[in-house]
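Now for one specimen:
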Amino acid sequence: MTLEVDRDRILTDLCELIAIPSITGDEGAAADHVASLFEAGGLDVDRVDTDPEVLARDPAWPGAEMPRANLPVVAGTLKGNRPGPRILLVGHIDVVPAGDLRTWTTPPFQPVVRDGMVYGRGSCDMKGGVVAALEAVRTVAASGLDIAGEVVVVAVPSEEDGGGGALAAIRAGFTGDLAIIPEPTGLEVVVAHAGAITFTLDVPGKAAHASTRREGVSALDKVLVMLDALAEDEHSRNQAETNPLMRELGLPYPTIVGKIHGGEWASTVLDRVVIEGRYGVKLGQSPAEAADELGRALFTAWDQDEFLSSFLLRLDITGGRFGSAEIASDHVLPLGLADAAQRVTGRRPSSIGVPYGADMRLFVNEGDTPCVMYGPGDVRRAHAADEFVPLEEVVTCARVMAEWLSATLVPPTT
């Protein structure tokens, strides 16, 4: 029996949640709204507010990129009448800033439905998934099924800038036997994901008047030396990957420089340039191990350069530190979820790997909770102008998760 979800309620909830501009660092209003939805859905509501300064002393602290005073975690629980597994459905409610508003055709926090798509910042990443998870649990609750165990929908902040919200949830006891994070996966099952660290590199030069530029050394020229080293390192570490799920991605561990700044006068040879970038964390690698690998690659090139070698390498790891995670493709979780999706849609989703970091690694590595990602939307729409999610994918995701929950929490009759 496939449980039917309420499409209109999904759309209403999604639009209301998009309309709350929960930019990472300021998720309180969205957390309050989600708590009210949990309560209206008949779920037992818990809220945990964690001090970021206290959590930052945790050895597993994943860093942060935005100032914040609080990490509000909200959970809604549906409890069965008998002992059984504890299932988590986890989603983040923070979103990235909208960016240049001129690149949007509609205001980012005024949701618009057009041609079956729901537009607005956070629609894809990942308020559509949060609403799908809530609807799945409400549907199971209203079904009258005699469930064993419990299912907990957990809404967390701070995923976009590191994952402090997920760590706060784990430390508050929100772990379980199985977990699904409905990130935008195009309704495929993510069983492996890479990670990422961000870095700052301070590159020196030697100032001189522009008319005698040969008397100086442009820091920009030395940045090019470092960029060449990064490109060579990116090529070698991606070529060395053997996991077939990651190799299929072509470039599972990208390196980019996203910011560059330096110079004070147009007619002065640059004596300092600072670059900031992102470095991929390989499957099975910790952020600290990735930082060591990055440092070795840069130091080799630095030490071989006649000018740079007379300076100390100034490399800092900054911001969020996203580790990697993996679960076996033949684990009961991805297999059971794929079975449920096939029953609902007639199509069996693939088990895939993805090149980005997510909260999944914290539940696997810190929460000892087997976890996959499965959700509506295309990650290429995430963080983009005119971000959108197909409404029917949100509906399908809710139906599949409701089917999976009923199969997992309702023991077969004998």
The domain at 7-193+324-409 is CATH 3.40.630.10 (Aminopeptidase).
